[in-house]
Amino acid sequence: MSTPSTPRPRSHIGDIPAYVPGKPPTPRPGLATYKLSSNENPYPPLPGVVEAATRAVESMNRYPDMGSRALYEALAQRLGVPVEDLAAATGSVALIYQLLQAFCEPGDEVVYAWRSFEAYPIAVTAAGARSVQVPLRADGHHDLDAMADSITERTRVVMVCTPNNPTGPAVTQAELDAFLARVPAHVVAVVDEAYLEFVRMDDAVDGLATYRAHPNVVLFRTFSKAYGLAGFRVGYAVAHAEVAGALRAVSLPFGVSSVAQAAALASLEASEALMERVDALVTERDRVESGLRAAGWDVPDAQGNFVWFALGERTAAFAAACDEAGIVVRPFAGEGCRVSIGEVEANDRLLEVARAFDRG
C-alpha cells in the first residue's frame, strides 16, 4: 500500500525570497512616531480624491470596469499615447509579475541591477526564470555597461529602476540611450519609473520619448508614491500595443477596483496640488541630503523620495538608533538603510540621529 503524499508546488516555489515590507514605528509614550520605511507620501489624499472614492464605494456591490476605460482614456490624453499602449494593474509591482509571465519561459534570464527593487528577484523566481544580478557601482548608480555585457541568448528581459530603489541615483538619458543601443530588439527593456515625479537632474530620462523610439521598451509607473495612493494599488505600463496587450492578457480580471480607479482619476485631475506637494518633498529631500553631507555622510545622489545610508555591518545599529528616536527606517541587513522623506519633524530627527551615530 503506497503512502499518501501531500500536494507539492513547482520546485522553484521554495526558492522565492520573502518580500520584507516596511514595518510600522514602535509606540513611544509621549513621543510622536513616524514611519519612514515604505517610501510613502506623508501627505493626505489630493483634493477631490476622498470624495471620488467615497462615491465609488456606494456601488461596491458591482464589479469594477475590467477594462479601466475611463482611466485609460485619461492617461492616454495626458501622456499623448494610444489607449492600446496602456496596461493597468494593482500597482506597478503587479506589472513586473505580468511581464515575466508573458515573456519568460522557465530558465530564461532577467538582467537587473542589484541592489534594486526588492520585488524583482521575487517575481523572477516566481516565473521560473533566472535572475542575473549586476552589482551597482560604488556610488549607488546602475552599471549599465556591465548590465549590457551580461545579456546572453537566454536573456528575455532587462530592468532599469530609475531612480534606483533603494539607493536613489537615476540614470541619464544619454546613459539609457547607450544601454538600449546594446539591448537586442527581442529583449524587453523595462524602465521602472516609480519615482519619476521626484527627479531633478540634468539630462533626466524622457520615458515617453524613449518608449516611442524603441518598440521593446516598457515604462512602469505608479500612483502609489507621488500621488499618495499606496493603499489603493494602481500602477500602469506604457508600451507598444503588442507588449501592452500581452500585459493585459495575463492580468488578474477586475484587478484594479472601482474605488482605486476613481481615486486615480481624481488624482490626475489634481495636477497642480500634486506638483506643489512633490516640490515640497523634493525641497525636504534636498535639505536632508545636504544636512547629511554636512555631517560627514557620503550619501548617494537622491532622486527619489528617500535617502540611502551605506552602513554595512552597522545597518542594524543605525535602524535601532532611529527606532529609539521614534522613526522607523527600512534596513537591508549587512548593506544599509533606506529612509523615506517624511514630515519635517521626522526628517529633523533623522538628521539628529545621523549626526550622533557612531559609524565605527
UniProtKB/TrEMBL annotation:
It comes from the Bacteria. Keywords: Aminotransferase, Pyridoxal phosphate, Transferase. It is an enzyme of class 2 (transferase). Its EC number is 2.6.1.57. The modification N6-(pyridoxal phosphate)lysine is found at K225. Pfam families: Aminotran_1_2. PROSITE patterns: AA_TRANSFER_CLASS_2 (PS00599). Residues 1-34 are annotated as: Disordered. GO terms for molecular function: aromatic-amino-acid transaminase activity; histidinol-phosphate transaminase activity; pyridoxal phosphate binding. Its cofactor is pyridoxal 5'-phosphate. Residues 35-352 form the Aminotransferase class I/classII large domain. It catalyses: an aromatic L-alpha-amino acid + 2-oxoglutarate = an aromatic oxo-acid + L-glutamate. One of its GO terms (biological process) is L-histidine biosynthetic process. NCBIfam families: hisC, PRK03321.1. Belongs to the class-II pyridoxal-phosphate-dependent aminotransferase family. Homodimer. Aminotransferase that catalyzes the conversion of aromatic amino acids and 2-oxoglutarate into corresponding aromatic oxo acids and L-glutamate. This is Aromatic amino acid aminotransferase. It comes from Nocardioides marinisabuli.
